[in-house]
Amino acid sequence: MKKTTGPYPALTVDGGGASVVPNAGATLLLRTAQTVGLSAGLSKALAPWRRPLAIHDPAKIVLDLAVSLAIGGDCLADIAQLRAAPEVFGRVASDPTVSRCIDALAADAPAALAAINTARAQARAQAWALAGELAPDHDADASAPVLIDVDATLVTAHSEKEAAAPTFKRGFGFHPLWAFVDHGAAGTGEPLAFQLRRGNAGSNTVVDHKAVITAALAQLPGGHTRGKKVLIRVDGAGGTHELLAWLTRRRLSYSVGFSLPGDLATIQATLATIPEHVWEPAYDADGQLRPGAWVAEVTDLFDLTSWPAGMRLIVRKERPHPGAQLRITDVDGLRVTAFVTNTTRGQLADLELRHRRRARAEDRIRAAKDTGLTNLPLHDLAQNQIWCAIVALACELTAWMQTLALTGHPGHEAARRWEPKKLRLRLFSIPARAARTGRRRLLHLAATAPFTALVLAALDALARLTAPPPRAATG
Predict the structure, then answer these.
(1) CB 51 within 8 A of CB 419
(2) Percentage of the chain with pLDDT > 90?
């Protein structure tokens, strides 16, 4: 008789397990889709692409793909994870059927994307109405606007795909531009719009920024297409005459990165004229005073006559972080950055902190890349546009689930901010055993999983939601 000497039990493994459901925790996503009306909305919007006598609804195929991305998939074939559990996910289309569905949608990509966007806008209106005080637009006004962050990212292509091109970082692929709505420090965020662009697309292309912002505004519930209760945040790529003038004409609030006008000597000489008492202490990311950092308004010190009226120029100077290299535009060993805004009220330190929190868009992009955006798996540009729309659906479904189901559970206050990897490890991957009794279908989540109680509490939270009067969606 041989004794086990390793740290793990010796097991005899076979493949005979029956009625075992993997990824059963993803029922949270399915219940969320039903609660916000996404399932029904997609089915109605994509009805023109359903062939007579077809067994599989294109809407369910798209939603199944979004769920597969949310639980960790990164290609069409990963929908097999859902197909293996019909007890939870129902009848899932075969790989050839999924491919044909994507091809059919891509054949008329503008109309298909418009249909998907309509369903997304309607579901968002319902989700935000159900969220109440937790909605991003709750009590939005000029002093507490809805925050829309616009940012671009690079997506590498590992083969010759349509519209793939060399990037400014000497890579090869795409340079999509995204717009996200910020949920604030208590939550995450959700994508509103995207534009899939060639890898050599410019960072500060005004036409692209205007198109993405317009599409993002159309996704907001209640018709928030203009007004100071919507704030557009962009990094230095948005600091162009045309974009700022366009935002001003739309009467939108903005906070945009800015390059100080003039040559280096002029900039340094101008900043040197600012009296010490004008510099106000700046804040760190937590809103606390940051030693060695100051902010000041310099609108009157630079020639801004060619820029839109009402634009304020604010600069921040601080001691660089240890190991950081100074740039040629830095002054007296201090890192200098600037941004412009048309917000007229508020302390300078608060306005500057609000602008720096635009960096949350980087978190949203990281989450999107962890939910299918890292690799665009298809060849044609139209196909990858449909893929990006499915990525957006997956990110939105996750964000809505966190807002509606993972809020207010003692001991799990941070669950609303968990990123995809943690959600998969702790919630979505929980297995279950399927059973039947009479006409009831039962799903027994693993009692030994550490977060089974949280999943059950989240499902109860979704079940308790009652549909409020719907708000108009502009999509």
Answers:
(1) no
(2) 71
